Amino acid sequence: MQSALALGLTAVTVSAATAGLFGIGSYVDPYHAKVQAAGYVQKTARVNRMTLSYVEGPDNGPPLVLLHAQLLDWFSYSRVLSELAKSYHVYDIDYPGHGQTRTPVDYPMTANQIGADLGDFIAKEIGKPVYVTGNSSGGLLAVWLAANRPKLIKAMLLEDPPLFSAEYPRIKQTVADRAFKTSYTAATKDHPDDFLLYWIHGNAPFFRKNVGPGTPFILTQAVKAYRRSNPGKPPELGLIKNDTVRMLLRGLDQYDPRFGAAFYDGSWNKGFDHAEALRQISCPVLLIQANYSTMPDGTLNGAMSKEEAERAMSLLKDGKYLRVDASHVVNLDKPEAFIKAANGIFLGM
To answer: Which of 292, 326, 274, 314 is nearest to 139 (CA)?
Structure first.
């Protein structure tokens, strides 16, 4: 994610300097109109102690549940929603800690709690077995569902999930741990009113080194300018050309840092052993692995190493593996490849 961040923000200093931040508040992602035209509707459902926010598509086929990556929200799937609506009845969910979903202050940010609530949503609101695809942390939740609510899941696509690498203490050897540290400090010590601006400030050294000296200031002013023109809406900055980075800033505006804090201290996976869960899964599974690398100090820059992906495949009863030349959020970086993979595992059965 950090390499994509640098790539996506490279043009920020030039664009902002030449435009003087002009027009920031008027930018509208064109996929909002495309998603609406495809028949999607924003909804909420009361599930146990929380109010779950999701976007539902037209009933054009079997139910398909989408679980986005951590730090993002439902709109990160916008590049594939129109195509998916042609063959499925899509439920694109903001799971707890993200988007417009609201949880109590004492809500446990754990796989067991979130997975159980998602299972109850599927059972009560959808009412029949579903296909499910999850990206990153959403993939871990999909694993939880397939292992613990097997009658609800017909087949599953795992989009670059951090299997084993997100477990403590292995997570300390990953680049993601640096982002989780920011969440942990926010949730346990600083308690900022504005997590997005807090996050930009906390990552200022990275921006200065990889993008340019003035980047943190420009980003902060751009976010404030957008909010002035669009009160109540998550920022979408057209001056950032990389879709994943733009979606990241949108997601961070709505993010509950307690979610990332639970990854940092290991509590998110309490009672959820990745290996044991994979052994329990009996439905067909397609595991997609995106690009990754190992830094000189041994830190994993990606969701899984080759060895971790191979271990996951060895534990699945009915698993297939697909290596994709794409960044972590495959559905944004290579939407056509994602659609092909989804139809292959779900419609090709």
So the answer is: 274
